[in-house]
Amino acid sequence: MALRFLGIWPNTPDDGSPTIWLEETTGDLIIQSWKADEETVRAAQEVGSVPGHSTDVPDHETVIRLPANMLQFIPRTGNTSAITPSPPGTASAFTANTFNEGQ
């Protein structure tokens, strides 16, 4: 699996910060972020998605809360390499690193 680091919460402390990677082969986003609280999960269940689709969250899934300032790191369709750099001196300026599993 080849992951490319896209970005981390700006001005992050040393650990536990929302982070986004891109799985190069599939285009999937791998997201570390805060778990949604029970109120948020209940609200999402009340809104639902498509008619007839369960609003239960299966055991193999979770609901996360992605901070709005992390949206800058999400690649746009057809352009996974164009990531707008953040101003120098911010933690979010660290982008486009590649991590290959096993290295």
Structure described in brief:
This protein is mostly beta strands. The chain contains 1 helix and 6 strands.
SSE arrangement:
Elements: E1 2-8, E2 19-23, E3 29-32, E4 34-35, H1 38-47, E5 64-65, E6 97-100
Antiparallel strand pairs: 1-2, 1-6, 2-3, 4-5
Description:
It contains 1 helix and 6 strands, in the order ββββαββ. With 103 residues, the protein is mainly β. The strands form 2 sheets. A 4-stranded antiparallel beta sheet has the order 3-2-1-6, with no helix packed on it. β2 and β3 form a beta hairpin. The C terminus is likely disordered.
The count of strands amounts to 6
Taken from the alpha-carbon principal axes, the silhouette is: globular
Mean pLDDT: 77
Q: How large is the share of residues in beta strands?
A: 15-25%
Helix-strand pattern: EEEEHEE
Which stretches of 5+ consecutive residues score pLDDT under 50?
A: 82-103
How widely separated are the two ends?
Answer: 11 Å
Contiguous helical run count: 1
Structural class: mainly beta
Main sheet makeup:
4 strands, antiparallel
